[in-house]
Amino acid sequence: MSLTQHLSTPISSSSSAFVAHSNFISRTKNVSLPAKRFSICKCVAAASQEAQTAYKTTVSRNANMAKLQAGYLFPEISRRRAAHLLKYPDAQVISLGIGDTTEPIPEVITSAMEKRSRALSTLEGYSGYGAEQGEKALRAAIASTFYRNLGIEEDDIFVSDGAKCDLSRLQVVFGADVTIAVQDPSYPVYVDSGVIMGQTGLFQKNDQKFVGIEYMKCTPENGFFPDLSSVSRTDIIFFCSPNNPTGAAATREQLTQLVNFAKDNGSIIVYDSAYAMYASEGLPHSIFEIPGAKEVAIETSSFSKYAGFTGVRLGWTAVPKQLLFSDGFPVAKDFNRIVCTCFNGASNIAQAGGLACLSPEGLKAMHEVIDFYKGNTNIIVETFNSLGFNVYGGENAPYVWVHFPDRSSWDVFSEILEKTHVVTTPGSGFGPAGEGFIRVSAFGHRSNVLEACKRFKQLYK
Ligand SMILES: Cc1ncc(COP(=O)(O)O)c(C=O)c1O
């Protein structure tokens, strides 16, 4: 049963989500959480708030918000984790669920942020608002580090507070009237931001899809690359490689197919390269390595998973000058307008950290962090392989995608949580083609990853 199915279970009581939740749990082997404990877990529904206040404003709810079927996947997982902790207060819960980094930020990077932060306390070193597009030195360093010889220049780079925020700003640029395609499964933000913008129809329970979104199925059968001959034309194509959640990385040939597909259809690719540094040598690390991509693609990326900046917040988006709307207007100019209206620039301290990330020492330190997580990935992959599962991903991304054929992802998620106290992520939360899979994140301390794998072996031996 998927997240959306489970949360759309018909209910009549005011504590709707709790009822749905306990319905779901009761179907999972050996799990019976006492009802009273659920009252502490604040779940999705607004129904309980309705009961608390009689006063209503006269403002109608944004109908697009009402289309969203359930809470965002990761808050839902956190809620279930909290409920689990209430049930087992002494359990040593290990989280390999939400893709949050755990290793400390390398010193060479934090010391640069410390220096910048201290300078803010001096007359000479103080700075207030900076350029919305980011500091020149950082834009130049991003262009030369990630796009050397690819024709992407300093002024094509927009520094941001993270890739997720930029994805939403891009959606504001595109507006409500575009059609979108997403990989299925995919990082939920592409679908949810499209729904919020009004680019879709309603959610259909039968196929677990929103009307109006083109879901490009990515499964083991097609090597996690969509069969483009069966994909309908859309205005925008969201594509993430290396992929969250499947861990698959597209080859040069596959990305060439994608760029040609976009060009033939006059579409724009929004290429999410948040995990590019995890990709092995020989694989493309940017969409702009593909000839012609500058006329059809935008690339968004992030320091989050390279330098542990999930809390610091720093990313960027590259919008080439060559990318034009149908009337010939440059997409970059509209993106610039939105950035200047909706955003006031990334934190100057974070930008100092970003610049340090791109120094020779910073790059070496980031590679060490990435290699550490890749070591975790190997341990997880070997564990599930040794247990006879079909395991995907891992090699070029910090995510391992494990197949549990003919089982509901949420059932597997609950089984693992209940019996091993390990939090994973149910594949169906990333799209209907994720049903039957779970995603295991390699972000975790080594001792926790080893302990989690020991528990997986006990459960599935
Ligand atoms: C594919 C993908 N894109 C973007 C993001 C968000 O990155 P940021 O922390 O820069 O907002 C994530 C975070 O998990 C992700 O997995």
TrEMBL record:
Establish whether keyword Transferase is in the entry. yes
Per the UniProt entry, what are the Gene Ontology biological process annotations, in alphabetical order? systemic acquired resistance, salicylic acid mediated signaling pathway
Instruction: Give one GO term, molecular function aspect.
Output: pyridoxal phosphate binding
Family, according to the entry, reads as follows: Belongs to the class-I pyridoxal-phosphate-dependent aminotransferase family. LL-diaminopimelate aminotransferase subfamily.
Q: Which residues form the Aminotransferase class I/classII large domain?
A: 92-456
The cofactors it requires, by name, are: pyridoxal 5'-phosphate
State the source organism's domain of life: Eukaryota
Q: Kindly state which keywords UniProt assigns to this record, in alphabetical order.
A: Aminotransferase, Pyridoxal phosphate, Transferase
Q: Mind telling me what this protein is named?
A: Aminotransferase class I/classII large domain-containing protein
Give the SUPFAM superfamilies listed for this entry. PLP-dependent transferases
Instruction: Tell me which Pfam families the record gives.
Output: Aminotran_1_2
Keyword DNA-binding listed? The answer is no
